[in-house]
UniProtKB/TrEMBL annotation:
Residues 175-406 form the Glutamate/phenylalanine/leucine/valine/L-tryptophan dehydrogenase C-terminal domain. The record marks 138 as: Important for catalysis. This is Glutamate dehydrogenase. NCBIfam families: GluDhGdhB_Halo. The keyword Signal does not apply. Homohexamer. InterPro entries: Aminoacid_DH-like_N_sf, Glu/Leu/Phe/Val/Trp_DH, Glu/Leu/Phe/Val/Trp_DH_C, Glu/Leu/Phe/Val/Trp_DH_dimer, Glu/Leu/Phe/Val_DH_AS, Glu_DH, GluDhGdhB, NAD(P)-bd_dom_sf. SUPFAM superfamilies: Aminoacid dehydrogenase-like, N-terminal domain, NAD(P)-binding Rossmann-fold domains.
Length: 409
């Protein structure tokens, strides 16, 4: 598992108790549940759901719920571990969790998706809660899904409990800026990384694989700040124009699944070809494990900023390090989502509401603080990578918390 290998590597860079590292290799709990669903035609189908809870030493578990046919227990555990590191890097009072249902969301009607969500919530009722485990949207789920989850949990508890989940519509306790936050943080970290390497955004070319909520919003912001976004892609393929694209015009047609490929003035490429374009910054923001041993030597970008979770395999990481290509890791770059989820949780438990301006300003402040902490660690040792430095920052905080709390006998 990539997450476990990254933990072990970071552990060797710190003089810490190996027993704590050993504890962090395993989740505290994994719930596996059966989720029966009555389909619209009256038949009943049973789906498998998971909720992996990795570590809660710093606070309640936090992490997304995804609906996807490839959801597995191992995947949920790995993603939960990454959430633990991500929350610690951002210094949020949360631990990591992840979950989902093994289902193709495109095969569900709206009514079926709602019934599935409500039943899944019932199955997880004993292990989630605003002070226990707080889910959020992920692949195949959205703000509406989180609204159903919040309502189902609230009905079961006999009181409205908005803090049980984040990523809800603002009208029922969600936070403004939550949906765009991961992409905004990717753009912010890309901007800071370019500045670190004395690269002007106005002279920076960017390729974004995955023009969804993360990649699309990152591309729009970087374009607004002066970068030249020359390539973007979605599940159907990629488009490339060395003179630059207009991400905002493409995003305006976001509900159209052919929006990216509909850019007639640009050259059409495959998603794989986009990864090897000669650009200054490559942002893999689609799915995991797209940068591998098979293509790492063909990547021509000067820098990689990870928008998706786990887009780079451990072997590819070694190749990039050998080639001198800096990789800014996912647990820093896309941490805007969980950070604004934290803002939403604060608003819910305090029955307050923040303006979009306050959310975005506070997010930028938190992201820059995390970037400064990681940069300081990175500069202490010329032999470590950006990923190593990020893990060291997070792991130090987690280890310190474990040492103060001790081990229950």
């Amino acid at each position: 598992m990539t997450a476990r290998r990254q933990l072990e590597r970071a552990g060797t860079l710190l003089e810490i108790d190996p027993n704590v590292v050993e504890r962090l290799k395993y989740p505290q709990r994994v719930e596996r549940v059966s989720v029966p669903l009555e389909r619209d035609d009256g038949t009943v189908e049973v789906f498998t759901g998971y909720r992996a809870q990795h570590d809660s030493v710093r606070g309640p578990f936090k992490g997304g719920l995804r609906y996807h046919p490839d959801v597995t227990e191992e995947e949920c555990i790995g993603l939960a571990m990454w959430m633990t590191w991500k929350c610690a890097v951002m210094d949020l009072p949360f631990g990591g969790a992840k979950g989902g249902v093994v289902v193709d969301p495109n095969s569900l009607s709206d009514g079926e998706k709602e019934r599935l969500t409500r039943r899944f919530t019932q199955e997880l009722r004993d292990v989630i809660g605003p002070m226990q485990d707080i889910p959020a949207p992920d692949m195949g789920t959205d703000a509406e899904t989180m609204g159903w989850l919040m309502d189902a949990y609230s009905m079961q508890e006999d009181e409205t409990t908005p803090g049980v989940v984040t990523g809800k519509p603002p009208v029922i306790g969600g936070s403004y800026g939550r949906e765009t936050a991961p992409g905004r943080s990717v753009a912010l970290i890309t901007r800071e990384a370019c500045e670190y390497y004395d690269r002007s955004l106005s002279e920076t070319t960017v390729a974004v694989q995955g023009f969804g909520s993360v990649g699309g919003n990152a591309a729009v912001l970087l374009d607004e700040w002066g970068a030249n976004v020359v390539a973007v892609s979605d599940v159907n393929g990629a488009v490339y124009d060395p003179d630059g694209l207009d991400p905002k015009a493409i995003q305006a047609h976001g509900d159209d699944p052919t929006a990216v490929m509909g850019v007639s003035s640009a050259q059409q490429l495959s998603n794989e070809e986009l990864l090897t374009l000669d650009v200054d910054v490559l942002i893999p923001a689609a799915i995991g494990n797209v940068l591998t041993e098979a293509n790492a030597n063909d990547v021509n970008a000067s820098m990689i900023v990870e928008g998706a979770n786990g887009p780079t395999t451990s072997t590819a990481d070694v190749i990039f390090e050998r080639r001198g290509i800096p990789v800014i890791p996912d647990i820093l770059a896309n941490a805007g989502g969980v950070t604004v989820s934290y803002f939403e949780w604060l608003q819910d438990i305090n029955r307050q509401g923040w303006s979009l301006e306050r959310v975005n300003e506070t997010l930028e402040s938190e992201m820059l603080s995390a970037w400064d902490n990681v940069t300081e660690t990175y500069e202490l040792d010329e032999d470590i990578s950006w990923r190593d430095a990020t893990y060291v920052v997070g792991l130090q905080r987690i280890v310190e918390a474990h040492e103060y709390r001790g081990l229950w006998p």
